[in-house]
Amino acid sequence: RAEEGIRWHRGSCRLCGVGCRVELGVKNGQPVGLRGVPQARTNFGYVCMKGMHFWKCMRHADRLTRPLYREKKTGTFREISWDKALDIAASKFAEAVTAHGNDSVAYYGSGQALTEETYLFQKVMRGGLQTNNVEGNPRLCMASAVGGYLTSFGADEPIGGYDDLEKAYCFFIIGSNTAEAHPVLFRRIMRRKLDNPEVKVINADPRLSQTSRIADKHLQFKPGTDLALLNAMAYVIIEEKLYDQSFFSTYATFRKGKEKKEVSFDEYKKFVADYPPEKAARIMGGKVTADDIREVARWFATSKGTVSLWTMGINQRKRGVWANNLIHNLHILTGQLLKPGADSLSLTGQPNACGGVREGGGLCHILPGHRLVKKEKLRNQVEEAWGIPKGRIPPKPGYHTMAMFSAVNAGKIKAIWINCTSPAQSLPNCNLYNKGLAREDVFIVCSDIFPTRTTEYANLILPTAFHFEKTGVYGCTERRSQLTRKAIDPPGDAKPEVWIVREWAKKLASKLNDPVIAQCVKPFDGLEEGYELPRAIWNEYTQKLTKGRDNDLQGATYEVLEQMYDGVQWPAPTRAHALKGGTVKKFVRGMDPMADSEATSDLPYQFYGPAHKDRKLWVWLRPQADPEEMPDAEYPFYLSTGRIIDHWHTMSMTGRVPELLRANPYAYVEINPNDAKKLGIKPGDMVEVRSRRGVNVLPAKVYEGPIEGMVFVYWHDQHPERMINKVTKDAIDPGSKEPEFKICAVKVKRV
Ligand code: MGD
Ligand code: SF4
């Protein structure tokens, strides 16, 4: 009877990158529950606790419902109409462009915005306002994985997907607390192991986490030493001849240095000879022995199928791209790739970091369809698709995230639109960048569903529709695009972003007297915002800009996505292929239509990715490299930060769900019992965690999680005393520009 009158609306989960297929229950126009979809191959009906509860924040009293404006950041917000709000936003951006040039404006978006939203924002910024200052928070999580895939496999995004989990015999989980950050996938790994006791799980992580608890071997080492581990595993694979010579001599070459110089297998062997397990174990410290390294290398190489899984412990590092390369190396050397149950699978943090941002042109150097900004031919293809003059998109990539907020600090950016993200809390060393956000000469628009630490710096706050209050596509970890249809109305005057951008662009066009800006949104004029508008945007993107690209999505129309229980994995160039679910494994002839159409030989695997002209996989010579900031006499501890199971990022959503807040109401610092004893810290004592940049005061959790000499704090808490990004360091990977959230030096004392 409780089910009476409830209609269930299919969509995907709002939160993490697993992309669970769910249904929202709606009764009398209000959300009343959420359940998994048993037919969905992403999650087989399971959802985790935060996924199950997120709908409870949909009607929270804090929801933003009217546009709010204040001239000065010290002033008080007042409600204004949409017309007035968009007029102000257009005037301020137009003024900045006129007075300071096109690169004085910027868009900073999110791997949680729908693909249609990211696509339209970047179209107006690049094609209309002629700036590539288009960035997003995936720079903070996925950029190193992108760099790794491009440099190792020649194409971004993984080859396989979740299907491999049920076929794998060895899981190599490194730098990922899958149990808490990707719980439903972790359940699949656990199930696989419980059903098949011969399956091995290796966990490589400086912290004993919930994930480590199912590991056959947990390698616990000093933060920042896993490049030595990965090279030492390659050493064992070579020493014991566990490699698959026929695989790598057919499909791979060996590369080194900035010049990407090709070298011989012998030279690679010489390089790896510098990492005998005994030496690596000494570098890694902790409890790792040479025998451990030998054993895990054997498991990895000799299993019938090995899947590696990693996230931010590898990506958020000064040498994140290198660490990604070294994982891929192991797969290429051993041929643990492309066959069932074998893959090098980077897990995405956010629900649409792959889809909307990596594929849709949401970063400063890429255009939709994995096109590089700096390539004229590719820019021209986009200009042609948009019907705008050739040469309209500038050739220079815009600011990457940390450069963008440094430019805000320096007053070089005069107007910035922040959508679906809260950099005032999520940027490393945030105190420094918040000074820029506070500048009166920087006009800030925030579009969000709730007030956040970032809206505190805004001039204009625009209330947006939430998930299930609008229609659009998310693309999860495994190249899978899933449609969520609008099921309920947003509260008050909140509007979908696609409507907001379209109306803003029209006003911009008239203020700057520029018909090309109007042209960017003309194809969408007059379309109803709940379904027709996002569908038209999706059509333009997929039909005009993915055709023939490695993420070809032409077959995945809204009509097809509505029919599919769990969406479509690209490439899906035709309707027929999309209706079969798309491509489970890229590059495999007979499975991937592009591997067939792009084939240049009879070989079963065809690496058609755009970045490697030789159409080969590349094994890289990458040395061990220390983090930017090492502990020293003054700051003797490593600090690491990450997620916990109950919360999502800045807690703007999960912090407003009573069940989740009760489960974990505030951040604490995890400290190893031996360190706690030395410092006289007992459980629950208030502890100061201080770096060269800032300080937090938090209760202590004395726990054998972090290795000795390391402390861990979850980063979700918004409280000014417990916002750990005041303490973290803004060092970045020189290749991917991703910050090293995972490692910096701190001192710790009881207060
Ligand atoms: P979120 O809380 O996900 O954090 O950091 P953020 O992106 O800043 O912000 C999403 C915002 O979108 C919320 O304010 C929410 O209210 C709003 N929102 C929800 N739905 C909608 C919608 O439909 N439309 C609009 N316009 N807004 C909506 C994430 C970032 O943080 C990332 S991606 C990573 S990987 C980093 N991880 C990390 C870490 O591991 N450690 C530390 N110390 N810091 C980190 N920061 C990074
Ligand atoms: Fe949502 Fe991720 Fe949980 Fe699945 S695992 S229900 S996608 S938060």
UniProtKB/TrEMBL annotation:
Cofactor info, note text: Binds 1 [4Fe-4S] cluster.
Protein name: Nitrate reductase
Gene Ontology terms: cellular component: extracellular region; membrane; nitrate reductase complex
UniProt main location, coarse: secreted
Keyword Metal-binding attached: yes
All copies of domain 4Fe-4S Mo/W bis-MGD-type, residue ranges: 6-62
Signal peptide per UniProt: none
SMART domains: Molybdop_Fe4S4
EC code: 1.9.6.1
Post-translational modification: Predicted to be exported by the Tat system. The position of the signal peptide cleavage has not been experimentally proven.
Function of the protein: Catalytic subunit of the nitrate reductase complex NapAB. Receives electrons from NapB and catalyzes the reduction of nitrate to nitrite. Catalytic subunit of the periplasmic nitrate reductase complex NapAB. Receives electrons from NapB and catalyzes the reduction of nitrate to nitrite.
Cofactor: [4Fe-4S] cluster; Mo-bis(molybdopterin guanine dinucleotide)
Residues noted as binding substrate in the record, renumbered to the chain: 715
Catalytic activity: 2 Fe(II)-[cytochrome] + nitrate + 2 H(+) = 2 Fe(III)-[cytochrome] + nitrite + H2O
Residues that bind [4Fe-4S] cluster: 13, 16, 20, 48
Primary gene name: napA
Subunit and partners: Component of the nitrate reductase NapAB complex composed of NapA and NapB.
Listed GO biological process terms: cellular respiration; Mo-molybdopterin cofactor biosynthetic process; nitrate assimilation
Cellular location(s): Secreted
Superkingdom, natural source: Bacteria
UniProt source species: Desulfolithobacter dissulfuricans
UniProt keyword Iron-sulfur present: yes
GO function terms (MF aspect): 4 iron, 4 sulfur cluster binding; electron transfer activity; iron ion binding; molybdenum ion binding; molybdopterin cofactor binding; nitrate reductase (cytochrome) activity
InterPro entries: Asp_de-COase-like_dom_sf (IPR009010), CT_Nitrate-R-NapA-like (IPR041957), MoPterin_dinucl-bd_dom (IPR006657), Mopterin_OxRdtase (IPR006656), Mopterin_OxRdtase_4Fe-4S_dom (IPR006963), Periplasm_NO3_reductase_lsu (IPR010051), Prok_molybdopt-oxidoreductase (IPR050123), TAT_signal (IPR006311)
UniProt keywords, alphabetically: 4Fe-4S, Electron transport, Iron, Iron-sulfur, Metal-binding, Molybdenum, Nitrate assimilation, Oxidoreductase, Periplasm, Signal, Transport
Residue sites binding Mo-bis(molybdopterin guanine dinucleotide) per the record: 50, 112, 137, 141, 224-226, 312, 316, 447-448, 470, 641-650, 725, 742
